[in-house]
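Weekly sync notes, structure subgroup
Attendees: PM, AL, DS (notes)

Item 1: joint prediction request from the bench team. They want all two components modeled as one assembly rather than separately. Inputs as received:
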Amino acid sequence: VKTSPFARGIRESIGAPILVLGASYVGFGSLVRSSELPLVQGLFSTLSAWALPGQVAVVELWAVGAGWLAIATAVWLTNLRLMPMVMALLPGLRRPGVPRWRYWAAAHLIAVTSWVIAMRRTPQMPVEERLPYFFGLALALWGASLTGTAIGFFLAGTVPTEVSLGLVFLNPIYFLLILMPGDLRDRQQIIALTVGAVLGPLFHLASRDWGLLLTGLVAGTIGWLGGRWLEARRG
Amino acid sequence: VGEPEVWLLLIAAAVVTYASRLLGVIFAGRLAATGPLLDWVACVAYALLAGLVARMLLIPIGPLAATTMPERLAGVAAALLVFFLVRRNVLLGVLAGTATLALLA
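Output from the run, pasted for the record:
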């Protein structure tokens, strides 16, 4: 039986992606509760933003009484990474005859987990299967995130502090592991990731607002140039 | 149903978040599916993610800020160790890392 690419996308999400992302959102749901926000607001955030670091920033900055312009700026700068992510993934998913709104919808579903998996898997697929595969994968992850948010909200306060701390730690640890390069021949990517990991914290200390953006531009360009130089040298 | 001020904040956050994605769609329209420019954009995206993850682990905000650097680094080391020992098993790596932090903290 040949399954549809949409179904294969859903199947791809089953296992570590759904469990870990769902659990990360359990952490977010309990953060919503402990910040004394109602469940609908937590669910709205997951539904409408679906980019965990920015969502966490909103709730935490609001809880410490930051001004709303400051919060919006922080979220905007944290989530600006989505722009190059969309730019890097979409051209590969595109094909003639597909209505434009589907790409606008797909863009909303591009977040770290769906992006990393799709960047690795879609280049090996026939072009017509890539977009439905991506929708299957990302919609399943989105659903798990909403479910996780609700579970976390109801569990908040009932789990030991160690567990809730572990749930918050889950997200960066998971991102770290899925970003570990699978193909050592992709030198550009490896250099960009390594230099980015070093510069990220340093530039953040220099500028909380612009550090991340600068990290992307500088480390990305170093990776791109370095990778090209290594390729050229090997001839 | 929550405070109106928070609703406005969440809507503003959603708008600025989708704006980044929308700009990505618009600029992607001019990019070929392969080529050096697309490679550069992908490098920038990977570097941004690596920088973000490193910042989240080394200079955390929120509940993780209450943990110490050695505790978090031990968690990172445990996650990487198990991940590479068990044939790149993400689930076991993540479990090892978070369990280590939870036990130490």
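Discussion: Chain B touches chain A through 75 residues (CB under 8 Å).
Action: AL to compare against the crosslinking data before next sync.
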